[in-house]
Amino acid sequence: MTSSNNRTSEYNVDPIFLDRWSPRAFDGSVMPKEDLLTILDAAHWAPSAFNYQPWRFVYALKGTAEFDKFLDILIEFNQGWAKNASALVFVFSDTLSRPADGSEPKSYRSHSFDAGAAWGLLSLQAIKSGYFAHAMTGFSFDRALSELGAPEGFHVNAVVAIGKPGDKEALPEGLRSREAPNDRKPLAEVAFEGRF
């Protein structure tokens, strides 16, 4: 059993897994590009089927025109808090396996699974670097694909807001009470030996 961040695991996991959560209150500070690239470097070391590495990260740092463009792709609810993030990162994945020999591309079934592994490592490196990451799907998928220049065959999975923790009082009133790490279902509800 491990306890950290007002959470307790059933087994002896590393505290970083309990310390990781998805806040919405960010302090609005500017992030050095090197910090973001460190976080993305960790993410791209994720495992993937056949080492294909289907993930792609399209990012923008606060204070740039690209950041404002990315923010505009989010739904209004997410714009209200993500505007104070230090970076926004769209996570794409290639739905096709494209052989190096130039042969016909084939469907790549685990593209989202692999991109999810990369997101997991991103979120943990963010913690190690003094930041937090909050992934979301509340955005226009069509606009993200077209306005960010996704090549044919790419899927957009999520957008991630990254920043340093801020004052929850800056959030809209309805979100303030929810600004705390949440718990998880008991392990027995999600892990089954042999079959469901």
TrEMBL record:
Gene3D superfamilies to which the protein is assigned, alphabetical: NADH Oxidase
Database matches in InterPro entries: Nitroreductase, Nitroreductase-like
CDD domains given in the database record: TdsD-like (cd02138)
Family: Belongs to the nitroreductase family.
Pfam families: Nitroreductase
Protein name: Nitroreductase
Protein's organism: Rhizobium rhizophilum
Entries under SUPFAM superfamilies matching the protein: FMN-dependent nitroreductase-like
Keywords tagged on the record: Oxidoreductase
PANTHER family the record matches: NAD(P)H NITROREDUCTASE YDGI-RELATED, NADH DEHYDROGENASE_NAD(P)H NITROREDUCTASE XCC3605-RELATED
